[in-house]
Write a structure and sequence with these properties.
This protein is of the alpha/beta class and about 525 residues long. It is built from 19 helices and twelve strands. The protein is about 35% helix and about 15% strand. Strands 4-3-2-1-5-6-7-8-11-9 form a ten-stranded mixed beta sheet, sandwiched between helices.
Length: about 525
């Protein structure tokens, strides 16, 4: 989840270097960057309201002391026969927020909570946020770094409601289970929504990188299923503000626990979701349809990524109808077995990425791509300043090489996780089942939005572990624990030894830094150096 910060930071720091001492004379567009430097990372920067309302200097960290992980609950604590009474028209939103490196190094979780607070307050809607997995929370909202906490958004903003949790491990099913069980009793509602916030690693590597745990630990999909199966709550929708989680294996595994999912097939930029707009709509009308609510959420995220030069990136977000997953999964199995030879002879994950086969697959009109990427006067000025530094500084060739290096270092695509766009795959392979599979995908995707530079994806992927033994091993464990068909799990093993033209990414070369393979996260507070 949420890459691109390294590229942005490096670009601006290179510009600063060149303007402040690497040349014999000053050059560039004087004052252009200084004019907006203090506000550029602020969530209000591209809004109509006054950015001065936000204090952008959030990078003062509280003292941190490591604390032993504690467990304060067990699976038998809650009475499952207890009837939970709720008032009609009430909503509870459970935000399972593992801030991780995204918060520690860039304050991204704090910014998203600010967006939630900016939406206001409703007596009929409870936004319950559990903060975890972060060694250094920004001091902006006074969230503790040495322990997990639970907050709600009230009339006065962020209100602390639980401060006795210790340092929870957000990568285990128990923690998710307890949060939902406690929240459903403390804030009973007729409509419930569950949001996962952090890094995402697809069906093989799951959700979350808790900074207090080992790098290899994550909340796997089967652990999500374990927690949700033991809860008493059915969700209106489950949303994942994380990278690469719109996968058939995930949506199928969670089909019994929610009506819809809102998930991203691609990596998310540092912007992630934009929370203010859809929460305002929900506050105004708690009976708003999930489709209308999701449309606001998806359109806002895509629009933010289109126009934000510094933090935006290619994006896609889909509303998935979980009632369609049984049929879609059956059709995929039938199609996959019939097309085995073709699937094994070509790495379709990479073929679709390079060919852009998904661009014209707009069947029902629900899938749309936003045009006019990153336009506007401010961005035009920024582009001109960057071009000036490249072309007129005398360091253009050097900067081009540096920027190319940055780009190649952190550009990782869904194909590197062996994720293959499902609708595009069905369109490429000539099969009697192709049209049926395409239509089934189209019916399952109720609404999809994507930036105009993300035309080759259509909303949901499937995992084919081409030449990747480690990924297959992790995926097979998850699928077995989620009671997927054993025949299919064994069938997937063939892809590890498939003789395709291209190999997937060499994970061993990346070392143990599993969650930052698409670029390290640097603090956005670079302006103090100027």
């Amino acid at each position: 989840m949420r890459k691109n910060i390294l590229k942005i930071t490096s670009l601006l720091m290179i510009g600063c270097m060149l303007m402040s001492g690497c040349a014999n004379e000053y050059f560039g567009l004087p004052g252009l960057f200084m004019e907006f430097a203090e506000n550029i990372t602020d969530p209000a920067f591209y809004e109509d309201f006054d950015p001065s309302e936000y204090d952008t200097d959030i990078w003062t960290w509280p003292d941190y002391e490591e604390e032993e992980i504690t467990e304060t609950f067990d699976w038998d604590e809650y009475d499952h026969d207890e009837e939970i009474e709720s008032e009609p028209g009430t909503v509870t939103i459970f935000v399972y927020m593992n801030g991780s490196t995204l918060e520690t190094e860039s304050g991204v979780a704090t910014r998203d909570i600010q967006e939630m607070i900016a939406a206001g307050y409703s007596e009929n809607v409870n936004v319950v946020i559990q903060t975890m997995g972060t060694k250094y929370w920004s001091s902006k909202l006074n969230i503790a770094s040495d322990r997990s906490q639970t907050y709600v958004i009230g009339e006065d903003g962020l209100e602390l409601v639980r401060d006795d949790l210790g340092q929870l491990d957000c990568t285990i099913a128990d923690t998710l289970y307890e949060f939902i069980q406690w929240g459903s009793r403390a804030y009973p509602a007729s409509r419930n929504i569950l949001l996962f916030w952090d890094h995402g690693g697809g069906p093989a590597y799951g959700f979350g990188w808790d900074e207090f745990q080992d790098d290899y630990d994550n909340l796997s999909v089967d652990e999500m299923v374990k927690a949700l199966r033991n809860c008493d709550i059915h969700f209106d929708f489950i949303g994942m503000d994380c990278c690469i989680m719109s996968c058939l294996e995930i949506t199928y595994a969670l089909r019994e626990y929610c009506d819809y999912m809102i998930v991203s097939e691609d990596f998310e930029s540092s912007l992630g979701w934009y929370y203010t707009g859809w929460l305002e709509a929900l506050y105004e009308d708690t009976s708003i349809s999930t489709y209308d609510l999701a449309k606001i959420l998806i359109d806002d995220m895509v629009a933010k990524n289109e126009k934000d030069r510094f933090n935006g990136d290619r994006s896609i977000l889909a509303l998935v109808d979980e009632s369609r997953m049984e049929k879609l999964w059956e059709l995929w199995l039938e199609f996959a077995y019939e097309s085995e030879e073709k699937l094994l002879n070509t790495n379709f994950s990479q073929e679709i990425e390079s060919s852009g086969k998904g661009e014209d697959l707009v069947l029902s009109g629900r899938i749309h791509k936003v045009r006019g990427r990153r336009s506007g006067l401010l961005n035009d000025l920024i582009n001109e300043a960057i071009d000036y530094m490249l072309d007129e500084s005398g360091y253009g060739e050097m900067m081009e090489d540096i920027l190319d290096g940055i780009s190649s270092a952190d550009d990782v695509y869904v194909s590197d996780y062996c994720l293959t766009d499902l609708m595009s795959l069905a369109a490429i392979i000539d099969s009697d089942l192709s049209e049926r599979l395409i239509r089934a995908v189209d019916k399952a995707l109720l609404y999809v939005g994507a930036t105009s530079d993300n035309l080759n994806l259509t909303g949901i992927s499937v995992t084919l572990p081409y030449n990747d033994r480690d990924l297959y091993f992790e995926l097979a464990k998850v699928m077995e624990r989620c009671s997927f068909d054993s025949e299919y799990i064994d069938w997937l093993k063939q892809f590890v030894y498939a003789e395709t033209d291209r190999m997937t990414i060499d994970w061993d070369a990346l070392g143990d830094d599993l969650w930052n393979e698409w670029g390290e996260y640097e603090s956005s507070d670079i302006w103090g150096e100027w």
